[in-house]
Amino acid sequence: MSVIRIFDSGEARVAILARKAWEDQEMPSRLLDGIERIFGERLAPAEAVTRILADVRSRGDAALREWSARIDGPTAGGLEIAAEVWRLAYDGLPDDLRGALDLAAGRIEAFHRQQPTHSWLDAGPDGALGQLVRPLDRVGVYVPGGTAPLPSSLLMAVIPARVAGVGEVVVCTPPDRAGAVPDLTLAAAHRAGVDRLFVLGGAQAVAALAYGTESVPAVDKIVGAGGLFVTLAKRQVFGHVGIDGFYGPTETLLIADDTADPVWVAADLLAQAEHDVLASPILLTPSRGLAEVVADQVQRQLAGLSRAEIAAASLAQRGGIVLTADLVEAVELANAFASEHLCLLVRDPWALVGAVRHAGGVFVGEHSCEVLGDYVAGPSHIMPTEGSARYAGPLSVADFVKRISLVALTAAASARLSPAAAVLASGEGLTAHARAAMMRG
Q: Taking Cα atoms as reference points, which of 192, 223, 225, 195 lies closest to residue 109?
C-alpha cells in the first residue's frame, strides 16, 4: 500500500485542499510531545510562542540562552559569530560548492536588480507630486537551520535586501545537532554580505530581533522563511516591527497530465515532503493511470531518502493525489488553494499560465522543477503559504524599502484646491481642518 492516498476532487476539497486556521488544525502528536517536553505541559503552539516572546522581552540575553539551550541544545561559543569566521568558511569550501554558491548568488542578484523601486517626481504648473523610496535602516533575516540547514534561504533574503540598499542586515539561524552553524551557512553569510550573524532559532530569535536584547539589536522588519513556531512568532510581533509575510510549512501543487514523467512527478512530491511533517505535497491530475504510477513511484523512491520518516508523515497527513475531471478543474482547485508553489507538468504548460490567479510561484514545464527555484533559478524562494498567495507575493526588493509621499504645491494651486478640501472637511465635521484649508484659499 502506498504512503500517498488518491482522492477524487470532492473528497480533496474537504480534506487536503481545505484551508484551516492553525489554531483549528490538529497538530501532530510528535509536535505536541516536544512542547510538553520543553514546557512541562501540553500547550498549544501559539501559547508556547507567547511565553517565549514575553520572557525574551523581559529578560533579554539570559532568556535567549535558556530557551536556546532548552530547545536547540548547547551551542559552541556565544550568541554571535564573527565575520572573520564566515570568510574562512567561504574560503574553505570545496571548489564545486563555492562555485555553486557563487552561481546561485549571482543569479539571485541579477533577478532582483530588475525589480523597479525608484523615487519619482512629477513637476508641473501646480508644483510637484512624487514618491520617495528609501531603504529600511535595519532588517532581521531568519534562516531555517537545525536538522535541515538552509543556507539557500539566507541568499534568497539577504541579497534582495542588499540590492534595496538596507543599512544593516542581521541574521539569526539555529545551530545544527553539533551545536554549531554549518560552514555552508557561514559561507553564504559572507557571500551575501551579512552584517551580523547570531546563533538563535525559533520564537526566541524572532523575539530578539523584534524587541532587542543586550547582544541582539532590534530591527525595523523581520523577513525570512521558518517553521510553525517562527511564523506564529512573526504574527505575534507584527505591529511592533514589520514582517514580510507568513511563510509556514512548504506547500506544492503539481498539475500533471498523462504526458508527465511519473518518476519526475514522484521525485518532485518527495522533494517537498522531506521539508517538514506539516508540508503539503499534492498532485492534481485528470489521469488515473498517472496517479497510480506516481503513487507506486513515491513508495519506491521514499525508501532511499535520508529524511524518509518525515517525508512519509507529510505525504500521509498533508499530501495526496487528486483526480480531477480535467485540467480546467485542476487549475480551479489550484487557484482556490492558492499554494506557495504551482508546477505545471502538462503537454502545453503555457496554455494554463494565463488561468493562474493565485500562487507564490509558477513553474512552467517539467524542466522548471521547483527544486531549481529553491536554489539557482533567480527569484527568491521565500514565498507566501497558508493561502496568503491570494494577496501576497514572494519576497522581493520591495519588501526592503518604504515609500514616502511628496507634496510640494505652489501658492496658486493651494489656493485653488483649498475650498474643495474645506468642503470635504466640513462634511466630516472637522472644522479645524476646514479652517486650515481656507486660510490658504
A: 192
340 is catalytic: yes
Q: Are 281 and 253 in contact (CB under 8 A)?
A: no
Calpha distance 245→230 (Å, rounded): 11
Domain ranges of the chain: 6-17+249-387, 80-245+396-401, 410-438
The catalytically annotated residue of 112, 190, 275, 341 is 341
Mean pLDDT value across residues 211-238: 94
For the entire predicted model, the pTM comes to 0.91
Grid cell 495526496 — which residue? Answer: 320
CATH of 6-17+249-387, one of 3.40.50.1010, 3.40.50.1980, 3.30.70.1350, 3.40.50.880: 3.40.50.1980
Topology classification of domain 80-245+396-401: Rossmann fold (3.40.50)
Q: Is 341 a catalytic residue?
A: yes
Provide mean pLDDT across the span 285-294. Answer: 97
Of 251, 340, 366, 386, the active-site residue reads 340
The mean pLDDT value for 284-297 works out to: 97
Burial of 361: CB neighbours in 10 Å, binned 0-12, 13-18, 19+: buried
Check if 6-17+249-387 and 80-245+396-401 are the same fold: yes
385-398 mean pLDDT: 94
pLDDT for position 23: 63
Q: How many whole angstroms separate alpha carbon 367 and alpha carbon 330? A: 20
Quote the CA–CA distance of 362 and 63 in Å, as a whole number: 42
